Amino acid sequence: MRALEQANRVRLARAELKRQVAEGEATVAGIVLQCPWEAESMTIADLLMSQHRWGRSRCRRFLMSISMLETKTIGSMTERQRKELAERLSEGYNGAVAA
C-alpha cells in the first residue's frame, strides 16, 4: 500500500510540474537545474514535451544536438549536462538542424 501511495504522490506531483511548464509558470531549464524530487526519475523527453509546441520530433532533434538520450532521467544527469541543457534551452532552441 505504501508503494502505491508513493507512486500516486509522484504521479500527481509530476502532473503538476508538467502543468506549470505548459502554462509558463515554470521552465524546463529551471527544473533541470533545481532537480526537485518529483523530477528525479522523470525522463528528459517527458519534461521537454510538456512545453507548448514541443512534440517528439522536436524533442529528438534537440536531444540529438546535445548527444543525450530521450530516456535519460533528470536525476541521473551530471551537473555539466544540466548546465548545458539549461543553457541550450535558454538560448531559444527553435528546432532547426545545424547545417
Automatic annotation (TrEMBL):
Highest taxon listed in the record's lineage: Bacteria
Record protein name field: Uncharacterized protein
Organism: Solirubrobacter deserti
Organism lineage: Bacteria, Bacillati, Actinomycetota, Thermoleophilia, Solirubrobacterales
